[in-house]
Inverse folding.
């Protein structure tokens, strides 16, 4: 398996992920993959604004898996990459 240079940065909304991603990208010359862009694309496809889609996703964990899979697939084909992602904690009772 080929080794890839991939950095992942995770955090909650407005936690500074984007800022840190840009700073590292500028320093290292890495590309940034933002899960949030894919999230917004899916929201638009469903005809929802981001806030409404965020509520919808809480009841549809398969969408989180789809978003994670998208980032993983992108990473397979790219090197020198920063993945900027918001991870969700999914609990079941």
């Amino acid at each position: 398996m080929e080794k890839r240079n991939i950095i992942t940065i995770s955090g909650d909304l407005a936690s500074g992920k984007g800022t840190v991603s840009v700073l590292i990208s500028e320093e290292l010359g890495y590309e940034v993959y933002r899960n949030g862009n894919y999230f917004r694309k899916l929201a638009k496809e469903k005809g929802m604004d981001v806030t409404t889609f965020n509520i919808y996703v809480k009841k549809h964990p398969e969408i989180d898996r789809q978003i994670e899979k998208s980032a993983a697939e992108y990473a397979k084909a790219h090197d020198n990459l920063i993945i900027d992602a918001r991870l969700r904690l999914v609990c079941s009772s």
About this structure: Residues 6-85 form a domain with the Rossmann fold fold (CATH 3.40.50.300). The longest strand covers residues 6-10.
